[in-house]
Amino acid sequence: MIRIQVIKIGPIENNVFVVFDEETKNGVLIDCSDNSERILRVLSDLRVNIKYICLTHTHYDHILGLKGVMDGLKTGIVGGAKKGGFDLKRAPGIVIHKSEARYLLEGISNPRHFCDERMAHFEEKDLFIFEGGEMICMEGIEIEVIHTPGHTVG
Known about the structure:
It is built from four helices and eight strands. By secondary structure, the chain is an alpha/beta fold.
């Protein structure tokens, strides 16, 4: 059974979502607000094996915890896009829309004036860059990535 755990973080109570299969414990983290220690504690308590970190967009309040979470998971991030889906053999990785990827590649947030020492620089090989319509598949979970631009282009 799929479970969704919501973690509210920060002064504006950003939502971070943990979507996982209760049987296999494989999961996806959606967004990484600025309290990576709390996110990691919840992941540990749930005993979730994060395969992907999906970013809805690159505003600072959705990515400031990204470096800390990646460091805390002690995982190397390697990736690349695979048309029609993402290759689980390359996970864990960061899933981001192509129009937002440049901010991670430059190590900045969108907008720039919210950058600080928690921002991380990534290389293109570190990212699963999508356009929309791809599937994230792992044992127990299938998630369709839908491009829904709103208050950002990605």
